[in-house]
Amino acid sequence: MRVALAQINATVGDLAGNARRIADAARRAHAQGASLVIAPELALTGYPPEDLLLRPAFMQACAQTLAALAEDLRDCEGLHLLVGHPHQFGERGDIRTKSVTVQQRYNAASLLAGGRVQASYCKRELPNYQVFDERRYFVSGRDAGLGPLVFDCAGRRFGVVICEDAWFDEPARLAREAGAQVLCVLNASPFHLGKAEERQARMAERARDVGLPLLFAHLVGGQDEVVFDGASFALDAAGEVAARAATFAEDLLLVDIDADGLPRGPVAEAPGLEAQAWGALVTGVRDYLGKNGFPGAIIGLSGGIDSALVLAVAVDALGADKVRAVMMPSPYTADISWIDARDMAARLGVRYDEIDIAPMFDAFRTALSPQFAGLAEDTTEENLQARIRGTLLMALSNKTGAIVLTTGNKSEMATGYCTLYGDMAGGFAVIKDVAKTLVYRLANWRNDQGAEVIPPRIITRPPSAELRPDQTDQDSLPPYEVLDAILARYMEEDQSVEQIVAAGFERADVERVTRLIKINEYKRRQSPVGIRITHRAFGRDWRYPITSKFRA
């Protein structure tokens, strides 16, 4: 028999559009001989729908769309579709008499065939860590006393589990005990670097544990700060990869299961770390702008490495015709910054403009001189330059409708090496979760993919904000190799100051970096949403208080 894994790019809340994508994939699969199509977790709503799930009208629309999808595919004789969606049991009573039956919501998967919903399964293991918040919205199928779902299709028996279920023993074991011969895993597993390898290893472990082949259908695409990498796959009962879909692209993976239960299909190449990161950034930009209806992007191009990387990502995501670069030199801008910015814009073929901010900077200083009388120049004047640039970029955004892509990296966001209402001004923070050392790796990787789009001098020159004479980042920060290593240990691995010092780092550097992380929480709370590519990003998985006296 043939099974199709429908790796779709769903949009949260676009119930009709998501249903069309699922139906189109199902019809294409049916035309190619598939008896079963597996769509991802919550494919009908997109993931995560968050507080939309709390709206009765949304849940009602989900139920109606699911029924309509089943009816739409009635003419596909012999086709079974397994699709993820939110499900709700219970009736509303009269709150005035307190006779209210609480409606329970479930993260569910339903089997559609013959024009109707044949059966449903409710997720048992609800993740509540990192970016996940499922216990806010859903009840566990286990807590509700709901059992496994095993169904027959083309002479085989398929058991159903949903995402987190497959990371635990019980759900798959129950499916096998109920007679499953093949395990179907519906997924919406947000990407971070190394997640694909971890995911595949854990699913291989699950397949070996239950002695069953495993079919893993995964979402692809961007949703606000999270991205989904696709790479759906099939494993044999020994946990070996038998088929794999494309990464960061919609795909319909056709898997043939032979008489002995062995799955076989095409195996797409698994990308390396830099390729994964680049794919995540491109996907995040493309879908954030596309799904929210922005006509294009504007980037403040400085001649430095961060804005160069963001420009390259934006062009790969959107095309050069939808990207505009604006150079805004100040009295401290080096000539090579002008030259390199013009060079890069020309290499990528984007619209390029220059707006000299020196007259505006002088006007601000003149207006403020009575207030600043007797006070020495300091970061105030530096920040004025960044805020002038932010104002200009936002004015262009307002006039054209294009969104400003900010260019601050994770190392800067961690330590506050950024200016509120200045270089932080914008709508989407592309490299917010990309440490500075990775910025350089990605720039070199992108230049190795064919045409050299980033001028080499941008990569090799010492980084500088160019807000005062002869300024470099290392005037204010430890070397990025040291800073990023401390950041990873403290922020991503939750190590204490003492543990980091014991690992061989200078105490002064550790205390300096961790102090900067703590005192700049107020800035990060006001920063635009940005793409998550690590397992701990500043955003959904970082929820620290602004006011706090804890210092370890």
From TrEMBL:
Pathway: Cofactor biosynthesis; NAD(+) biosynthesis; NAD(+) from deamido-NAD(+) (L-Gln route): step 1/1. Residues 1-259 form the CN hydrolase domain. L-glutamine binds at residues 129, 189, 195. ATP binds at residues 300-307, 407. InterPro entries: C-N_Hydrolase, C-N_Hydrolase_sf, Gln-dep_NAD_synthase, NAD/GMP_synthase, NAD_synthase, Rossmann-like_a/b/a_fold. The keyword Nucleotide-binding applies. Deamido-NAD(+) binds at residues 383, 412, 523. Coiled coil: none annotated. Pfam families: CN_hydrolase (PF00795), NAD_synthase (PF02540). It catalyses: deamido-NAD(+) + L-glutamine + ATP + H2O = L-glutamate + AMP + diphosphate + NAD(+) + H(+). The keyword Nucleotide-binding applies. It comes from the Bacteria. Its EC number is 6.3.5.1. GO terms for molecular function: NAD+ synthase (glutamine-hydrolyzing) activity. The active site is at residues 41, 123, 163. Keywords: ATP-binding, Ligase, NAD, Nucleotide-binding. Catalyzes the ATP-dependent amidation of deamido-NAD to form NAD. Uses L-glutamine as a nitrogen source. In the C-terminal section; belongs to the NAD synthetase family. Belongs to the NAD synthetase family. NCBIfam families: nadE, PRK13981.1. This is Glutamine-dependent NAD(+) synthetase. The gene is nadE.
